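Open question from group meeting: does this chain pack into something compact, or does most of it stay loose? Before anyone orders reagents, we agreed to write out a predicted structure and look at it together. Recording both the input and the output here so the notebook holds the full record.
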Amino acid sequence: MEYKDLITTRHSSRDFDGRPIAPEILRTIVGEAQHAASWANAQPWQVVIATGETLAQIKRQHLTQSRQGVVGNADLTVAHRTEWPDAPRKNMATWSYELGNHLREAGVGQAGYSQTQDHLFNASALVYLVLQAPVNEWEVFDLGAFSQMLMLSATDHGIQSIPAYEVVRYPDTLRETFGLPETSRFMMGIALGYENQQPINDFRSSRVATKQILTLKD
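C-alpha cells returned:
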C-alpha cells in the first residue's frame, strides 16, 4: 500500500468481526514496528498480545468489572479534559460533537457505543505496550512512535486498530493474568481486528487545518 493511502486508511475502528489474526501476522506487525526510532536506540518497549483463551478471559473480566462499576486505575495518569490546554480541549469538544451526531444519524446511540467498549471492541487480539518502572518521559515518547508504527503496519496487513484507555483500564487484573511483576506498567492497549461493516466504523474524526499547528520560520 502506498504511504499516503496507508495513513489515510488507518482509523480507529470500534467494532471488529472476531476473525482470528494469524500468529505469524502478529509477529510481523510487531517486527515492523521495531523500526521505530528511540532515545539512543533504547527500544524500551515490551509487547504482550492476548489471543485465544487469554483474550476471552480478559474480555470476561473486563465486562464484569465494567458492568459492576469498578473504577479504572490505569498505570498512565488520566488527565481530565479540563486539565488540557485550550487548543486540545477545543479539539476534544469538536470530536465529541461530531461523534455524537454520527451515532445519532447512524442509529447506534450512546448505548451501542458503550457496549463496544464493554466488550473491548470485539477485538481479535489485544496488544499491550508495557514499560518497566521507573518510567521516564522519553520512554513514553518512544513508545508513542512504536505504537503508531505498529498500527500502520497492521493497516498494511489489512487489519484495523484502536488505541484505547479501555483496554488498559484494569492493569492489576492484567498483571495477574499475564503473570507480570508490579514493575510492569501497562502504558497503552491497542485492539486489533478485521473491521465489521457496521455504521459505528464509518465515523472519521476531523483534523484541524495544518496552518493552525505549523510554524515555518526562515
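Observations to bring back to the group:
The chain has a mean pLDDT of 96.
The first helix runs from residue 3 to 9.
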